[in-house]
UniProtKB/TrEMBL annotation:
PANTHER family: ABC TRANSPORTER ATP-BINDING PROTEIN, DOXORUBICIN RESISTANCE ATP-BINDING PROTEIN DRRA. This is ATP-binding cassette domain-containing protein. Belongs to the ABC transporter superfamily. Drug exporter-1 (DrugE1) (TC 3.A.1.105) family. Residues 10-240 form the ABC transporter domain. It is found in: Cell membrane. The lineage of its organism: Bacteria, Bacillati, Actinomycetota, Actinomycetes, Kitasatosporales. Keywords: Antibiotic resistance, ATP-binding, Cell membrane, Membrane, Nucleotide-binding, Translocase, Transport. SUPFAM superfamilies: P-loop containing nucleoside triphosphate hydrolases (SSF52540).
């Protein structure tokens, strides 16, 4: 690895990709420190895959610039390609071959001699818990096994930068945990990982920094902690004795906290996000003020708890902010 200390693995500036009228990626600035897991978090259609494809040199940008380990992704695409690997919906795994055959074949294509290819395949099958399934055709693998095989295939040669595009979408929690362990092992070897995900918990678990992306734009960036604190200090979850009083409680809490109060699936439960209200009060003081108000209004609280904001709440708050800003801009236009 020849990069200078502190040089980012990825740096983009105003990256754009347009499909017809659709600005799928609309001016994305990213800076991904080398040796870390960087999360790109966003809903379906946000522009995650398009961004990854441009950075992996599979798609040519329509605007802006990007460098991977200092190499321009358009002018020095070969140099970029030699440093990166990609896992996702483009996997090169052949359904009719067994797990072992797939890895050996791909290792041979990468230039390994037969014994070395075999050895590397065995090593990865072992590391990814696929030894028992090594001689089964890939088409008979479960979703979790298949995803692990995809990742194994993408790290036959340990890449300096690995793109993992939604590696756990659709997986059950156990398989998801296995993939998370693999990601941690990969980054421990010194590989930088750019991980896209729709799962807020996943970004929180794995990534040192996160860019939240929506409709082709980065709407927030920072550590998971910074993102949480930019949104508010958490939420108060309240369970009422009487479901009939929930609307009253909602109005009251909305007044006290000057925030949106969410009705939870359970008919007695509701959640209020705590936003900084300009006072010195921390979350505990704000929550006790709310409880006092509810009591004064004759609404009985059976249970309450204070929670750190989840990244789900962070995302909701951030996209609400964008929507509000857009509404403001439209109103002013
Ligand atoms: N090859 C393509 N041709 C036309 N539109 C595309 C193409 N690829 C993606 N898009 C559109 O670009 C937007 C971003 O897509 P994508 O990057 O796949 O989002 P994500 O990976 O975050 O779900 C979507 O509106 C999608 O429909
Ligand atoms: Mg995608």
């Amino acid at each position: 690895m020849s990069e200078r200390i502190g040089e980012p693995a990825i740096e983009t500036s105003g990256l754009v990709k347009v499909f017809g009228e659709n600005r799928a990626v609309d001016g994305v600035d990213l800076r991904v420190p080398a040796g870390t897991v960087y999360g790109v978090l966003g809903p379906n259609g946000a522009g995650k895959t398009t961004t990854v494809k441009m950075l992996a040199t599979l798609l040519r940008p329509d605007g802006g610039e990007a460098r991977v380990f200092g190499h321009d992704i358009v002018r020095e695409a070969d140099a970029v390609r030699s440093r990166v690997s990609l896992t996702g919906q483009y996997a090169s795994v052949d359904e009719d071959l067994t797990g072992a055959e797939n890895l050996i074949l791909l290792a041979r294509l990468l230039g390994h001699r037969k014994p070395a290819a075999r050895a590397r395949a065995e090593q990865l099958l072992e590391a990814f818990g696929l030894t028992a399934a090594a001689d089964r055709q890939a088409k008979n693998y479960s979703g979790g096994m298949r995803r692990r095989l995809d990742i194994a295939a993408s790290i036959l040669n340990v890449p300096d930068l690995l793109f993992l595009d939604e590696p756990t979408t659709g997986l059950d929690p156990r398989s998801r945990n296995q993939v998370w362990d693999i990601v941690r092992a990969v980054v421990a070897q010194g590989t930088t990982v750019l991980l896209t995900t729709q799962y807020l918990e996943e970004a929180d678990q794995l990534a040192g920094r996160i860019a939240v992306i929506d409709t082709g734009k980065v709407i927030a960036e920072g550590t998971p902690g910074q993102l949480k604190s930019s949104v508010g200090s958490g939420s108060v979850h309240i369970r009422l004795r009487d479901a009939h009083r929930r609307e009253d409680a909602r109005h009251l809490l909305a007044q006290v906290f000057r925030t949106h109060v969410q009705l939870d699936p359970e008919p007695v439960a509701l959640t209020a996000r705590l936003l900084p209200d300009g006072s010195e009060d921390g979350p505990a003081e704000m929550a006790s003020r709310a409880l006092a108000e509810l009591t004064r209004a004759g609404i009985t609280v059976d249970d309450f708890s204070l929670g750190q904001p989840s990244l789900d709440e962070v995302f909701l708050a951030l996209t609400e902010k964008t929507a509000t800003n857009e509404a403001k801009q439209e109103a002013l236009a």
